[in-house]
Amino acid sequence: MKNLNIAQDIWKKQYATDFALLDTPQEQIEFLKDLLLKNKENVIKTEKLPQIAPSDVQLTNQINDEFAPRKPTEKEWMKRWDEVNKELVLPVIRNQNHLSFLEDEQELLISKLKIARKRLEVLPTYETHEVQKIPSISTEGGNSSKIVEAKHDDLTILLMNIAENEPDLSGGEVWLLLKKELNRKTRKYDKDEILLQKSSDDFDAIIWNSGRGDSNETRLTKGYLERNKWPAAKKLAKENQANPS
Q: Whole-prediction pTM value?
């Protein structure tokens, strides 16, 4: 794992804070699975790129064939040598290095995933968190007092509100709805404006205000929303509707 230090540095800069803000091992597992799926996609794309560079003998023969039948000057030949190396060799070296990094990043993510799964295995089967009543805001502006667990963050409460009003939406449709909310002057669901902006370095990510930690800005990816946050919010919303207060 010659790129391990690079992978760890990128983890610290891009993901460590968001990971630390997750409350449960299950959330950490879903977060890591999302990153692993993206890593897998990148590995597949990179593997399709040229990974074997032509040998010096092949390059020499190619250059000689290009100049044939005349014999080039040493200056001409060396100039062409530099050109074919830039055209045919350097891109392959970059591809090889990138693939090597992705493989090391994969190993790092897998090791973190194993740790998160071990933490999940040793958790007690019961929960001791407190429960509090929080007003649930409808799209019409009315308030209804429903049970919302104190451990739920503002994003989960927002998604529960959406689920109560539009329970049949898919995760992909909710993702588009959240992105649309960011462009609204008056937001339909996000009354507290916890959704801050689209991520500048990832098209499939939104930055939202968690109100926790040294930095309030937390990343939500489309994959994590679809596989974890939205299904959980729908389940909680359904439970609220089945047990109205």
A: 0.55
pLDDT of residue 118: 86
Query: CA–CA separation, 148 vs 233, rounded Å?
Result: 11
In 123-137, which positions are buried (b, 16+ CB within 10 angstroms) versus exposed (e)?
Answer: eeeeeeeeeeeeebb
Adjacent-strand bridge partners of 220:
206
Which residue's structure tokens are 């039948």?
69
Cross-strand partners of 132: 148
Give the tokens for residue 57.
């003998």
Domain boundary assignment for the chain: 4-121, 131-242
CB neighbours of 14 closer than 8 A, spacing ≥ 6? Answer: 201
Strands 205-209 and 195-198, how do they pair? antiparallel
**40's tokens:** 């897998």
Q: How far apart are CA 25 and CA 221, in angstroms?
A: 17
What confidence score (pLDDT) does residue 50 get? 92
Q: Per the structure block, which two tokens stand in for 152? A: 């739920």
As a whole number of Å, the CA-based R_g of the chain is: 26
